[in-house]
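queue> holo job accepted (2-acetamido-2-deoxy-beta-D-glucopyranose)
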Amino acid sequence: MKMHSILSTVLVIILAFSVAEANNLDGKTQQMVNGICKKTTDIRFCSSVLVKNLATPAPSNKDLMNVTVREAERFSANTNFFISTLLENAGDERQDLQMCADAYSIVNLAFTNAMSFFNQAHYSKIVKVQNKISKAVGICKTDFNVPGYEINPLIERKRQTMILSAMEQIVCQMVSS
Ligand SMILES: *[C@@H]1O[C@H](CO)[C@@H](O)[C@H](O)[C@H]1NC(C)=O
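queue> job finished
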């Protein structure tokens, strides 16, 4: 009985938070987010990146761009670090992992450049960076096993990287038009 009421309380709190989060965005913002995300291959992932990180309730296109370039850079830096931790204990897969480390050095540099282009308002240069990113992502082959993982975790990392890259391109076109 006691456990039951604790569980119900926790559930109510979780529900309250999700409703609060859903209400955080006004209709217009929700529409902007949907407009961007339905052009990507994963509406859910795209929306969660934007919604989680929007600081203002009524963001401009520039605010959306800001969130996108910063999150893309953060994600690629994090992936870089993640690969370096895998490399520390790597066995047979070392060479494949090294290729991915090399790939993500390029990807991360490209996303870092995109962020400085955004700060300098050189939006057309951000679009050009996306080609470099998709080429570099392709250097990281994922047809190898990573010990401790049932599925190579870099498959999902690559997928999300490409969505973030697509988001940059989409939002950038909105900002510059
Ligand atoms: C981008 O967002 C950060 C953090 O919210 C803010 O400090 C910065 O001024 C923003 N940059 C631009 C150009 O809007």
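queue> The helical segments are 2-24, 27-37, 43-53, 61-88, 94-119, 123-139, 153-176.
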